[in-house]
Amino acid sequence: MKKITVRYFASIREAIGAGQEPMQTTATTLGALRDELIARGGAHATSLARGRAVRMALNQALSEESAVLVDGAEVAFFPPVTGG
To answer: GO terms for molecular function, please (predicted)?
Structure first.
């Protein structure tokens, strides 16, 4: 079991109603963690759903779903950002 901090940004934060949460997980990758959060249902399932564009960062570096989670990690989920 790993202790991690999950942070949510922008529209995902608004939907979930929290900017961050500590959690314990057995997930080994970012993708597995996303699936674990989706399985909670409700706002987590809607805002992190497969098929939705969601960016992920591991310890403040943009990462792919295959990135390996370690104890004490900080994970962030946020929608793609466009600028102009």
So the answer is: nucleotide binding
